[in-house]
Amino acid sequence: METPVEAYGSVAFPGVLSTPPDLPQLILQKAMLDATPDCIKMISACGRLLMMNKAGCLALGVAEDSGFGMPWIPLLPEDVHQSGLAALGRAANGENARFHGKSESAEGTKYWDNLLTPVMDSSGGVQFILCVSRDVTEKTILEWELEGAINREKLLSKEMRHRVKNLFSVVSGLIVIAEKEAAAEDAPEDATCILREKLEALSRATDAAFVDNKSMADTDTGLIGVQSLVNSVLRPYGSRCAVVGGDALLRSVMMTTLTLFLHELATNSVKYGALGSDSGQVTVRCAAENASLDLTWLEVGGPKISTSPKSEGFGSEMIDRIVRSAGGTINRTWHSEGLVVDLCLPSAIQLQHLNS
Q1: Are residues 123 and 175 in the same domain?
Q2: Residue 220 pLDDT
């Protein structure tokens, strides 16, 4: 049987080693294999580890003088067992195989590109399997970082399209509301003035959504009452929105989460719900206990709801992610008379309440 050094040499340098090497050559070649950072293993067709170089022993936590003979796959992390077994099975059938694996040690996790090459005997059977594992940790991490950056860019692009599309829907809805308010007998302003005020209020609410919370976190100006924030976001919709319940000081780091949550619900209400109907109304109920904020959004007077949507839109999915990242929960209930949304933010409130 070929030694591991001979086997590796015959695969890596076919035809070079035409005669069996003598003992000094074997010692030299073993030293060369031990010097490489690649993990080189000789594995039986049934999956037992026959020999391994120094780098392999370090990666798998096996003593160099262990004598080997143990099953190879159990030495790998459990989550790569399936792919390792599949590659081992192909190699045992005489095929070259490859899989991505990893090893875990006190130094951390390393990722490996494992190439399994069957070494055949004179009768055409698999004598043993040569496995060469190359450290691809840096490459793997870079690929993950690149994939993450691409996904973030796609998400930002999708969010931008969503926001621009929503802007037209909101402005269209505000025009209708302004015209109806101006048509009232006691209206002090014309539709243009009313619309301008609503757009200015919408602009202020948008600014609040993207305030620099880090720079405000340690200042008094970073504190705002929950009801004040809700009223600010919903001011463009006038008396059709009401805020009830207790009030409390909102932590500055939660301002963006709550503002985006309210803005998304108001936008969807203009497009599909109560704020898009003549008689529609929205009530926002606030309750604060210790550091937790519970907020309920209730719509009535909009189009009748026969069933809940089969899937959520991008805006709803985005808000769900933002709420989860803040440690909160959000639940939607589709009643026939209107949507009800319950939001819970466990760490949203400063300990001193304004009133209850």
Answers
A1: no
A2: 44
Mark whether 114 and 227 lie in a shared domain.
no
Q: Mark which of 135, 167, 183 sits at the end of a domain.
A: 135
Are 221 and 287 in the same domain? yes
Cα–Cα distance between 104 and 98 in angstroms, integer? 20
Q: Which two tokens stand for residue 279?
A: 């008689």
Task: Write out pLDDT tens, residues 333-345.
Answer: 988 889 999 999 9
Query: What's CA 149's distance to the chain center, in Å?
Result: 12
CA 273 to chain centre: 30
17/117 same-domain check: yes
**For residue 281, what are the domain limits?**
142-355
- CATH number of the domain that residue 296 is part of: 3.30.565.10
- The pTM of this model reads 0.50
Sheet of 224-225: strand order equals 224-225, 247-250, 349-355
Q: How far apart are CA 62 and CA 106, in angstroms?
A: 14
Query: Which positions ≥6 away from 54 have C-beta within 8 Å?
Result: 33, 34, 64
Choose one of 79, 104, 135: the last residue of a domain.
Answer: 135
Neighbouring C-beta atoms of residue 240, cutoff 10 Å: 18
Higher pLDDT, 246 or 199: 246
Residues 6+ positions from 183 with CB-CB distance below 8 Å: 191
> Which tens digits make up the pLDDT trace of 81-131?
999 999 999 999 999 999 998 888 777 888 999 999 999 988 889 999 999
Instruction: Compute the distance between CA of residue 270 and CA of residue 248 in angstroms, rounded to an integer.
Output: 28
Residues 121-165: tens digit of each pLDDT: 888 899 999 999 999 999 999 988 888 888 888 877 877 777 677
